[in-house]
Structures are given as structure tokens and as C-alpha cells.
């Protein structure tokens, strides 16, 4: 009998960005992506939290957004990659998470991380130098709260009573040490779309992190690794570059100021350093066959950020990922609502 078990779950991630100051439209467009992905059979839809505005948007309140997405979808799981945990009250966060989980029928996944913006920490009156310590402290409380244990004071448990979150907490990591720390905490591992500050290709940098996570894993359940990648399929490479090339280059030039990328980085080098999979679906499949982390990943998380393609092109890219890219890599879609063919 042929094994029909998918090699991985398929997700998409949006940073909720648009091309103008109309944030209502940007948010509506991002909500539409969740509906489309739900219909296409994507397993998980993720949002990233940003308290400091990105160009054309950014999402400061992910759980409010996901509560709305829960009402518009039926089966896709709903997650954060990531919630900036040091800036949250972990008990209040647990209440929000449990509420969305209850409303969605148990579809929540929560990814947390320590954040990177000193401006965010200053705005919330937190010491950025303590971000890792605060993350650890808050994660311990969050984990207890979502396990239904007493937190804060004797006799207090969050409501609504949380479901079983064993296996649904994720941590972002940017080093082998961070990956081992996530494993020791019993958290799933989230790997970023790019390894900043390295000349070596991202997958070569991150594969040892994934291996360190798996080696350190000492929990009975199966470890999960979420691999985020910039994936933009289109009719052909030229079409893909027209949609994402300039945005990716501008983002790389901005990030060169912090040393994440070399100064005066070229457009082609920007795409390489963002580890971008772009072009016709068959080209992307060929690129993924060389990806070093995918063989150990349990979740492939496609995103378009830092590019902000127009909405029609974004939806088309999701269709091509679900119809042509992911199945060629071993993914099987969940039961879906009928949707037009994504054939090129």
C-alpha cells in the first residue's frame, strides 16, 4: 500500500503589508489570503507581529486579527510566527490565545520569540538587553497558563479553559544554542526565511541549527521544525522578478545599514541572501530539491515578505504553491473547497 502521509504540513506567512497608507484595505487583503489558503488546502496560516510600522502596514495585534480569520475559515490552523513575547503579559496573552482557540475549534498554533526592535522595547518600557531573559520568564508562565495550571496567584486559572497545547508552542531560533534551548523547553522550532549576517547560503547555516534541535530533543512526542522560505511562483522567472525583485532589493539595502547584508548589495545578491525561491513552479521545485533543511522540516511556511506583490499576483502565487509546487515536494492537501484550476 502506498503511504499517503504528507511529508510536511504546508503553511503561508503574511507580515500584513500593503503598498499605501490604506491599512483597512491591507488588513482586508490579508484576511482574504486566509480564506483563499483555507480553500486551497493549506494546513496553517501564520502572521508576524510588528509593533513598529512596516512600509505599508504591519500587524501589532495578531490575536484580534486571527479571531476574525477564525470566523471566516473552516479548517486552516491559525498561528503567529512570531508573537514578541517579552513585550506581552503572559497571562493576558494566554487568555487571548485560549479565546481564539475556543472560537476556532482548537485550530491555534502559537510561535513566540524575543523580538529585535529596540524601539518596540522602549515604547513598552522594557529593557532590550533583557529580551532573552524576559522571553524565558514569560514563556514559562505562558506554558503553565495554557496547561490549565494556576498562574499569578493561588486559585487563578485562565478562562476559557485552554485545550491541549502540547505540541502547539513554537520558538524562533537564530543559532544552534537557541535551537537547543527550544528543544529543552519542549517547543517546536521556527527557522527564519534568511540567516542574516552570513555570507554562506541560509540553508547551509540553518541545517546545523535544525540538527542541534533534533539532537537535543528529549520529549516523547515528535519534534516539529517549521521552515520559513520566500516562495514566489509565477508564469516564469521574469514575471516573478517583476513582482518581487525591486522590493527584495530595497529591503536588502535597508538592512545593510545594520550589517545584516553587505553595503551596496546587488539585486541578484539580495535574492540569494533572502534565499528566495522564485520563477516557474518547476524551477522552484528543482531549487527545493537542493534545499538542505527541507528534508528534516515538518512544516514548510511560504511567505512573500519582504516583497509586497499586488493582491491578484499574491493569490495566484498561493494557487501555484498549492497546485504545483508543494505536491511535487511530497505534500498532500487537506480536504478543500472547490476552486478554479491553477494550471499555468
TrEMBL record:
One of its GO terms (cellular component) is cytosol. Residues 13-298 form the Luciferase-like domain. GO terms for molecular function: oxidoreductase activity, acting on paired donors, with incorporation or reduction of molecular oxygen. This is Luciferase. The lineage of its organism: Bacteria, Bacillati, Actinomycetota, Actinomycetes, Kitasatosporales.
Amino acid at each position: 500500500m502506498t503511504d499517503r502521509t504528507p511529508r510536511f504540513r504546508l503553511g503561508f506567512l503574511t507580515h500584513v503589508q500593503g503598498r499605501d497608507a490604506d491599512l483597512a484595505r491591507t488588513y482586508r487583503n490579508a484576511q482574504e489570503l486566509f480564506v483563499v489558503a483555507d480553500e486551497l488546502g493549506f494546513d496553517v496560516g501564520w502572521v508576524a507581529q510588528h509593533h513598529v510600522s512596516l512600509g505599508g502596514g504591519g500587524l501589532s495585534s495578531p490575536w484580534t486579527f486571527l479571531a476574525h480569520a477564525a470566523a471566516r475559515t473552516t479548517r486552516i490552523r491559525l498561528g503567529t510566527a512570531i508573537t514578541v513575547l517579552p513585550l506581552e503579559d503572559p497571562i493576558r496573552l494566554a487568555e487571548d490565545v485560549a479565546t481564539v482557540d475556543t472560537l476556532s475549534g482548537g485550530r491555534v498554533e502559537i510561535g513566540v520569540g524575543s523580538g529585535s526592535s529596540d524601539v518596540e522595547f522602549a515604547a513598552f518600557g522594557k529593557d532590550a538587553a533583557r529580551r532573552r531573559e524576559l522571553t524565558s520568564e514569560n514563556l514559562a508562565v505562558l506554558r503553565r497558563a495554557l496547561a490549565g495550571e494556576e498562574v499569578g496567584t493561588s486559585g487563578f486559572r485562565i478562562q476559557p479553559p485552554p485545550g491541549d497545547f502540547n505540541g502547539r508552542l513554537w520558538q524562533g531560533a537564530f543559532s544552534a544554542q537557541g535551537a537547543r534551548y527550544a528543544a529543552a523547553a519542549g517547543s517546536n522550532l521556527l527557522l527564519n526565511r534568511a540567516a542574516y549576517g552570513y555570507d554562506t547560503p541560509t540553508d547551509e547555516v540553518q541545517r546545523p541549527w535544525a540538527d542541534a534541535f533534533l539532537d537535543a530533543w528529549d520529549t516523547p512526542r515528535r519534534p516539529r521544525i517549521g521552515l520559513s522560505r520566500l516562495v514566489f511562483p509565477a508564469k516564469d522567472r521574469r514575471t516573478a522578478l517583476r513582482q518581487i525583485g525591486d522590493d527584495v532589493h530595497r529591503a536588502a539595502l535597508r538592512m545593510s545599514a545594520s550589517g545584516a547584508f553587505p553595503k551596496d548589495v546587488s539585486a541578484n545578491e539580495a535574492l540569494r541572501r533572502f534565499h528566495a525561491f522564485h520563477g516557474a513552479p518547476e524551477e522552484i521545485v528543482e531549487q527545493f530539491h537542493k534545499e538542505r533543511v527541507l528534508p528534516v522540516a515538518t512544516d514548510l511556511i511560504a511567505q512573500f515578505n519582504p516583497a509586497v506583490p499586488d493582491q491578484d499576483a499574491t493569490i495566484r502565487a498561493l494557487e501555484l504553491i498549492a497546485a504545483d509546487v508543494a505536491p511535487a515536494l511530497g505534500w498532500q492537501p487537506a480536504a478543500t473547497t472547490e476552486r478554479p484550476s491553477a494550471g499555468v
